[in-house]
Write a structure and sequence with these properties.
Layout: E1 19-29, E2 32-42, E3 44-47, E4 56-62, E5 72-79, E6 84-89, E7 93-95, E8 103-111, E9 116-120, E10 124-126, E11 131-140, E12 145-154, E13 167-176, E14 179-188, H1 192-196, E15 207-214, H2 222-229, E16 233-238, E17 241-248, H3 251-265
Helix pairs in contact: 2-3
């Protein structure tokens, strides 16, 4: 007996979801930082532009063009003893409208003895009804140095985009020699617009960035940081950490202060090449 489906019943295919995973391990070679191992899967790619110094620059690329509900990305970067590396993104990461599921991004960073890592992604842009859960785990050796920034934009002012409804959770766990030294949990939503307008948060600003420098000598940059930041933010130093937060009306205005801060805190390595394109 043949069984036929009813012509009145529509078959709806499940939407395709993006998945990507990438891992980079670097090693010292003849006084320079070079690739020890590189793995890429799905829509996660890593490119390594030439540099004039002895360090290494890794550029993360999400070939899916952005993230929406149900998408998953996993990144891992290991900077072994004596190496110097900075990691950035090819462009801003866009978080699009999600129907139900949440996009998930998990990043693990490991930094060895006498090693340095700068985590410098370009802005993450959240659109109306977007949903993102992001986790950053950092494991530092006793003598390692790490600079971490995370700029976030809630809708593009020039495009007339407003974010009233969105879900965002950013979770940081940073350990040195296995001991927790810094933790953050930033949660927002679903009524993101009303929360962002609160004076104690962004006061209506659309862009924000958190900057964390883990270095026993970081305090020497504190006065210069405060001068660059101005009235729209602040900076403090304690227990080997320099922490700064900035807000502004849009991403362009925020970058005018963020770029000189990166150049200051990233010292000889300066600004990643893709930031200046």
């Amino acid at each position: 007996m043949n069984v036929h489906s009813s012509p009145d019943v529509a078959v709806v295919a499940a939407p395709q979801r993006a998945y990507g995973a990438a891992r980079l391990i670097v090693k010292p070679l003849n006084g320079r930082t070079r690739i020890a191992s590189l793995y890429q899967e799905g829509c996660a790619k890593i490119r390594l532009p030439d540099r004039d110094d002895n360090g290494l620059e890794a550029v993360m690329i999400n070939t899916s063009g952005g993230l929406t509900g149900g998408d998953r990305m996993h990144w891992q970067f290991d900077v072994t003893d004596g190496c110097s590396a900075q990691v950035t993104t090819q462009a801003c990461e866009r978080i699009y409208r999600a129907s139900a599921d949440i996009a998930d991004v998990e990043t693990t960073l490991r930094v060895g003895e006498q090693a340095s890592l700068a985590w410098l992604p370009q802005e993450t842009i959240l659109f109306e009804r977007s949903a993102l859960h992001r986790t950053l785990n950092v494991n530092l050796a006793g003598t390692s140095r790490a600079l971490i920034i995370e700029p976030i934009v809630f809708g593009r002012k020039a495009m007339g985009e407003d974010v009233e409804t969105a879900t965002f959770h950013d979770r940081w766990r940073i350990r040195r020699e296995g001991k927790l030294v810094h933790a953050e949990d930033f949660r927002l939503g679903p009524d993101a617009g009303s929360i962002l307008r609160r004076p104690a948060l962004l006061g209506g600003a659309r862009a924000m960035v958190t900057i964390l420098l883990l270095d026993s000598n970081a305090e020497r940059h504190l006065a210069a940081c405060r001068k660059i930041i101005g009235a729209k933010g602040g900076a403090s130093f304690w227990s080997g950490k320099l922490l700064a937060r900035l807000i502004d009306g849009d991403a362009y205005c925020l970058r005018k202060r963020l770029v000189p801060l990166i150049e200051l805190l990233n010292e000889e390595a300066g600004l990643p090449k893709v930031w200046s394109i």
